[in-house]
Write a structure and sequence with these properties.
Number of helices of chain B: 15
Strand order of the largest sheet of chain A: 2-3
Number of domains of chain B: 3
Shape of chain B: elongated
Strand content of chain A: 5-15%
Structural class of chain A: alpha+beta
Largest sheet of chain A: 2 strands, antiparallel
Shape of chain A: flat
Oligomer: heterodimer
Distance between the termini of chain B: 69 Å
Order of helices and strands of chain A: HHEHEE
Structural class of chain B: alpha+beta
Number of helices of chain A: 3
Number of strands of chain B: 17
Number of strands of chain A: 3
Radius of gyration of chain A: 23 Å
Radius of gyration of chain B: 30 Å
Strand content of chain B: 15-25%
Helix content of chain A: 25-40%
Strand order of the largest sheet of chain B: 3-7-8-11-1-12-13-14-15
Distance between the termini of chain A: 39 Å
Largest interface: A-B, 38 and 51 residues
Chain lengths: ~100, ~475
């Protein structure tokens, strides 16, 4: 299966990536090659194989319902590109 | 029209219920509502690089409880999944949710319709997911502000089948679901604070059609009343559109409660492509039969079972049983009143008529009642023992509501104890007969109806304290003597 230029552009939009038109054809080729590689799996009969979502065979760890964190607002806001009055500030969200 | 003779309305509801855990779903931050912005966040819920989520055990317990309460199937193995989208209140760029393998599948809920019929509404699935943060826009120039305190608060998303056929049924479904969640003490059900949120999928079709019409999704519905109004509005809009030869566009519409109308979000919303995939940071959740059984043993008695018990064992009418089990608080108020020795039917009457009437007038909830179940039970006890009449009891009740005093004290202090002493009643009867010779004459001539008037006069003379049965008996005896 090879993918089309339109698909590459759509994936870029979903991933918030800005692509020049010149960047598209090489990506079409590279991504198609990756898909071809994966397509080799289709040669196998997987009818009786249970789909696997995780390689590790372990149960999910669960923690008790306890509040253990204290206020570390300042440290976290210090990493933000912009903050005002204790809020993260971002470009206006169009509502 | 919403109850159009030609069209029927098909509704499915998606409810997001915040679970009452102390800490968030994947980290040890507090979930308390209303804290100062960004004071309840940490590197995990604020999605700093390199952090790992650890699941809150209590949330799983709550999900199992909810699943059992709606007779759902609890999956032995369920998975978390990433739902990918960008929005500033979602710092990770994805929401951890469940997709292909939700924790609960195929439940149901029974509605008691106003017609007296019962209707089963299917529940497609219930899954666990994280809540997003909050954005502020108003009064901020050229920017938005983000508060991540709510980010990572655990939610159950409860999805119904498209089984609802009117806004009334939708309202009844939401009330029933909210009541169950409150009985289970897993959600406070507060729609205004957003801890119980609802989106509605609405379509219409000609009666007799079996295929579903194109649906629209309604959002921003912050009260049950708004859900109902938005559904009626949307059904009318779709019918008008079809009748004028138009077609329905599948879209999301925002309800505006002030303008009583909805508007399309079309164009502002890019095509959804959430690219779900299994959450790599969380292995599958495996729930054993033993764990489910242990939760089942702790389940409280739920509203349907309680209502059946109230009507079968305590002799209440189905209506009273329904009212008294509509909330956990109401049911315990009734049960505590009965524990004081009050006859169940009498207690039911006092609560549904006097107490709820008074609370409604004051705009209060039953848990805010100045008259406690213990005091109401004892007031009813005073009627049952013949210490006061039902009529006087109403006066005492009003005074209890205002003064928060014990009924015995009010009765003693105000001298309201019923007079059953025949001597005192006889004296009052003699006096009334002497003062009303015309009526006595009429009675003796066969107009026995005037007895009612004479009883009233005796009650008046004793300021309502005479035992009415005794008054009747003595009066009859004297009149026919």
């Amino acid at each position: 299966m090879s993918i089309q230029a339109e698909t590459v552009k759509q994936v870029a939009v979903l991933a918030r990536l800005q692509l020049d038109d010149q960047a598209v054809p090489p990506l079409v080729e590279q991504l198609s090659n990756i898909l071809k590689l994966v397509e080799q799996l289709n040669e196998l009969d997987t009818r009786d194989v249970v789909p696997m979502s995780h390689a590790l065979d372990m149960p999910i760890p669960e923690r008790p319902d306890e509040v253990v964190n204290t206020n570390c607002k300042d440290a976290l806001l210090a990493n933000a590109p912009d903050s005002v009055q204790g809020y993260f500030q971002v470009p206006k969200i169009i509502e | 029209m919403a109850n159009d003779p030609l069209y029927e309305t098909i509704i499915g509801l998606e409810v997001h219920a915040q679970m009452l855990t102390r800490s968030k779903i994947f980290c040890g931050c507090s979930t308390t509502f209303g804290a100062e912005a960004n004071t309840q966040i940490c590197p995990v819920c604020a999605a700093f690089p390199g952090v790992l989520p650890v699941l809150n055990r209590e949330l799983v317990q709550m999900a199992i409880k909810t699943g059992l309460a709606v007779h759902g199937t609890i999956r032995e193995r369920s998975e978390f999944a990433r739902k990918n989208y960008f929005y500033p209140d979602l710092p990770a760029g994805y929401q951890i949710s469940q997709f292909e393998l939700p924790i609960i599948e195929r439940g149901e809920l029974t509605l008691d319709l106003e017609s007296g019929e019962k209707k089963r509404i299917g529940i497609t699935r219930i899954h666990m997911e994280v809540d997003a943060g909050k954005s502020l826009h108003e009064g901020i120039q050229g920017a938005s502000w983000i508060d991540l305190n709510r980010t990572g608060t655990p939610l159950l998303e409860i999805v119904s089948e498209p089984d609802l056929r009117s806004s009334r049924e939708a309202g009844a479904y939401l009330k029933k679901l909210r009541s169950i969640l409150r009985y289970l003490q897993v959600c406070d059900g507060n729609m205004e604070e957003g801890s119980f949120r609802c989106d509605a999928n609405v379509s219409v079709r000609r009666r007799g059609d079996t295929r579903l019409g194109t649906r629209t999704e309604l959002k921003n519905l912050n009260s049950i009343r708004n859900v109902m109004r938005a559904i009626d509005f949307e059904a009318d809009r779709q019918i008008d559109l079809l009748e004028s030869g138009g077609t329905i566009v599948q879209e999301t519409r925002l309800w505006d409660a002030n303008l009583n109308t909805s508007r399309s979000m079309r164009g502002k919303e890019e095509a959804h492509d959430y690219r779900y995939f299994p959450e790599p940071d969380l292995p599958p959740l495996v729930i054993t039969r033993e764990r489910i059984d242990a939760v089942a043993r702790q389940l409280p008695e739920l509203p349907d079972a309680k209502a059946i018990r109230f009507s079968r064992e305590l002799g209440l009418s189905e209506y009273d049983a329904g009212v008294l089990t509509s909330s956990r608080e109401m049911a315990s108020f009734f049960e505590e009143t009965v524990q004081q020795g009050a006859h169940p039917k009498t207690a039911a009457n006092w609560i549904t008529v006097e107490l709820l009437g008074r609370l409604n007038r004051e705009g209060l909830e039953i848990e805010q009642s100045a008259v406690t179940p213990r005091r109401l039970g004892r007031l009813i006890g005073l009627i049952q023992s013949g210490d006061i009449s039902g009529k006087i009891a109403k006066q005492v009740f009003e005074l209890m509501f205002e003064t928060e005093a014990d009924p015995e004290r009010i009765v003693a202090e105000r001298g309201l104890k019923q007079v059953s002493d025949t001597g005192a009643i006889e004296a009052a009867v003699d006096k009334v007969l002497a003062e009303n010779p015309t009526q006595v004459q009429q009675y003796r001539e066969g107009k026995t109806k005037v007895a009612g008037f004479l009883v009233g006069q005796v009650m008046k003379a004793t300021r309502g304290k005479a035992n009415p049965a005794a008054v009747n008996a003595i009066l009859q005896a004297k009149l026919s003597g």
